[in-house]
Amino acid sequence: MSGPAMGRAAALALLAAVWGSAVLRAGEPRPLPPEALLAGAASVADASPAAYRQPVASLDGPQLREFALGASHVDAKWVNYWFQAGEWGSGPTFNADACAACHLRNGRGAPVAAGEGPHSLIVRLSMPGSDDRGAPRPHPDYGDQLQTRGVPGVVPAEGSVALAWEELPAVRFEDGESVALRRPVVALRGLEFGPLGGQVLTSPRVAPPLVGLGLLDAVPDNVLLALAQDPPDPAMGGHPNRAWDYATGAPSLGRFGHKANVANLRQQVAAAFHGDIGVSSDYFPEQNCPPVQKQCREFMPAGRPELGKVRWAAVEFHLRAAAVPARRGVDDPAVVRGEALFAQARCNGCHVPELRTGEVAGLPGLSNQVIRPYTDLLLHDLGEGLADGRPDFAASGREWRTAPLWGIGLSATVNGQATYLHDGRARTLAEAILWHGGQAQPSRDAFVALPRQDREALLRFLGSL
Questions:
Q1: CB contact at 8 A, 280 and 287
Q2: Residue 360 binned pLDDT confidence (cut-offs 50, 70, 90)
Q3: DSSP-H helix ranges across 78-184
């Protein structure tokens, strides 16, 4: 075996040690039909619980070791004190102690864990208006996200989140089938620093899946701007968000987050560490401690910054170089029929099937690929039913980024459950479709008008992604 081949084999063995032997099976070459390759050369034939955590095939030995290192940091538990077992630097207030606490196996979060309270659900906060960068204006006493955990006995949590569900009348189809809908009712309890006040804007969110982020980051801005200027379906046209880019110190096209309020993958990693785990970085050097929170402000940080460049780069590389699971059942007649119905219902006006990436230095498997993420990464008005009333840069309170659909059929396999939309209200893909309004109302109505066999075919198509 040659030197490079031995290096790759050793790196694959390291990956197997990180999360089991699935990566070795996934790394074996398997013939795939072209229509199954959602991410071109960055596709992988894996439908196991580790499907979102496989490396693109083009990685060499050192890159695979970096990929595995990043995976270990995604899974690592962060702690408040140096003498505890884990990575020192969490807090003083935070929502989770690990990336994997919300993104199990790089998957999507759930609003409620079985038999427990809110799991990966967080609540964004802001006041009317925007700051000098155009971002939502944070609450003066609680910041931009309610922190539900603190350092026991030293720094109090800001409060807790109580989640209930309001059951709505079922949507009934002409053939007699019905689908029940629900929406979250969130109450903030035990607020440590006084009432929020009547003007506060809130938005509950669950963690989105970490699928194909490197490929989405590699789509050139001009591709997305062209879609905004000349949309495939004019009635479904969207517009880009303009988020603050901490690397350039200027607004940039947003592409990550439920409202496309983050400019690039590197910043997304830093923002999640800061907002969710309370870990500072060069982009976010200060702790989540508004002036009134004295205990928080006096708590000793682990360092300045706490997220070192090596760890930050490893997590970023892991997410950038993760492959996208290939489609399954592409020859199934129901799936083929469902894909045609998806287009007929004009779902592809926002969930654009095809994009192309640009050049990615050192990653030929991501470079110049035709990918099928089923998103335009643009903002669209989805109506009052999904509105949170909370603007975010150029996104209104009714607008959301088109969620990518690749990998969505493996949600339950990866996470053991599957809920959809920004707050996890939809328990099935049918429920998710039925919540669409605004610009997507015609597609929702077209789905409702389909006979049962065609509805099932469209859902089979989504399940193949």
A1: yes
A2: very high
A3: 99-102
**CB-based burial label for 290 (10 Å; 0-12, 13-18, 19+):** middle
Strand partners, 205: 122
Sheet with 201-205, strands from edge to edge, namely: 136-137, 122-130, 201-205
Q: Angle, nearest 10°, between helix axes 309-320 and 265-272?
A: 120
- Angle at the Cα of 350 from the Cα atoms of 328 and 243, rounded to 5 degrees: 110
Single-letter amino acid code for the residue at 113: A
d(CA 254, CA 237): 17
CB 429 within 8 A of CB 179: no
Could you tell me if 139 and 196 are in contact, meaning their C-beta atoms sit under 8 angstroms apart? yes
Q: Whole-angstrom Cα distance, residue 320 to residue 322?
A: 6
Closest CA to 93 of 53, 142, 20: 142
- What are the two backbone dihedrals, phi and then psi, of residue 5, each rounded to the nearest 5 degrees? -65, -40
Separation of alpha carbons 283 and 273, rounded Å: 11
State how far the Cα of 233 lies from the Cα of 235, in Å rounded to an integer. Answer: 6
Q: Are 57 and 23 in contact (CB under 8 A)?
A: no
CA gap 400, 304 in Å, rounded: 34
Stronger pLDDT, 32 or 443, i.e. the higher one: 443
- The pairing of strands 160-172 and 178-189 is antiparallel
The span from the CA of 196 to the CA of 141, in Å, is 8
Q: How confident is the model at residue 5 (pLDDT cuts 50, 70, 90)?
A: low
Helix or strand holding residue 341 (H, E): helix 333-344
